[in-house]
Predict the structure.
Amino acid sequence: MKQLNLSDWKELNNSFPRRLIYHVGIDCGFSVELNYMLNAMLYCLANGYRFQLYSEDANFGTGKGWTEYFMPFCEEVHEPFHHKYNLHRPPQWRRIIRNTIRTQSLSFVFWKLKFLLKSLTGHWLAFRAYGEHVRLSQDVAHAPDKYYHIPAFGINSSYYEAYAMLARMIWQPQPEVQQEMADAKRRLSLPQVYSGVQIRGGDKAKEARLITGRQIIEALRPQAGECIFALADNYSQLEIVRSEFPQVRIVSLCQPEDQGYSHKAFCTSSPLEKKSAIVRLIVSIDLLLHASKFVGSITTGPSVFIMKQRCGEPSVAAVDCSKETLGSVLTLPIDHRAAISEESKISTFH
């Protein structure tokens, strides 16, 4: 796959006269926020907007934002109004009306109207701060069916190809995080070739069915003696799956005190705990990006981030979605993906 040169991207990005300031780390998990940011970067490239970032209040950071974990890749702004008025794009009116009819409640309508007022205020504050019309996060229109033709980069690619190129360009961890990666590989005694899985528990059950570790490992169809790196959030469940598959070696950065990820608990944890958890997550995702085989779920953020970059590889699969439909499913909203996951038969490698 073609690689993007960061200096070339910066030169093109800075040449656009109009700009969009994206607020990352608003209210979702790290991987979902990263996915949204990449979609915004694609939107800017396709529509000629200079991409800038506001991240110092990111819910995955401790006050430093993006550069706490990764090398800088664009100009950042620091005006505090972005915290309240630079927001994720809400559902369209059609979906609001559908939910209103389904629940027989006007709460979705009032929520949408409140958002529109906050959005209007945000654009006014941005104009006052910068003296020009500036686009914000809520202006990003996701276009997964778009073909990206960017002559300056020699790019003539599908959404997934362009997404993967941008993801690899910005995935440049800070030296201390790179050291954690090297230390983790040494501690785990990872071989050159290993497989990867994500086993999700915790609060994911609030929005999608939980898929057992047994189902995930069975989908991988491992060979005896195979080494599997698992991104897991519940140590007791990890121990169960190890006992169920004694013929393989399952390693993980999951700790004995981990009892299932809760986003609410994470957001209220201490800065030290938060940074430690995110560094472990970044290291785990990086290991899964380099696994020879990977199985995840279409409902979990890290799995979606990984599969979007590797969905064309025959060695990458979702346990709850067929290989043939994976490309059309990964870009759907979480409630749609959760419904597909619920109705699916558990897949396995063939």
